[in-house]
Amino acid sequence: MAPAGRGWSRTLGNTRSFVGNALGGLRGWSNLASWAVAGTLAYYLWVKPARQLQKEQEERAALAAASDPYRYVEKRKPIPDPQDTGLIYGKKKDPTKSDN
Fold it and tell me: Which stretches are tagged as biased composition: Basic and acidic residues (predicted)?
């Protein structure tokens, strides 16, 4: 009968081999360098332009909102409701004995 540790080592070796083949079959520094180049290219070709476009769109939207002459601007603070209940129509709360 085979030792118990052998099954684990075979599974680990198969997994390592699968991952190595999935990454292109390169090992060591060449693998790391190829991933670094691919990541750098992906960043400069897709991620950075997408972020820059989003930032420009936000800036354009902010400028359009600031230059809109018909936008609503609150010119005075709202007057608070003096009733205790906060209702426009309603009975005021009766003062309790603890309030007097």
Answer: 91-100
State the pTM of this model. 0.42
Eight-state DSSP code of residue 3:
-
Q: Can you tell me the distance from the alpha carbon of 25 to that of 31, in angstroms, rounded to the nearest whole number?
A: 8
Token pair of 51 as six digits: 């972020």
Of 74 and 43, more confident = 43
DSSP state of 31: H
Q: Write out the DSSP string of 49-95.
A: HHHHHHHHHHHHHHHHHHT-TT-----SPPPPP-SSS--SSSPPPPP
φ/ψ of residue 92, rounded to 5: -70, 150
Mean pLDDT score of the chain: 77
Instruction: Please identify which residue in the block is written with the tokens 């960043």.
Output: 43
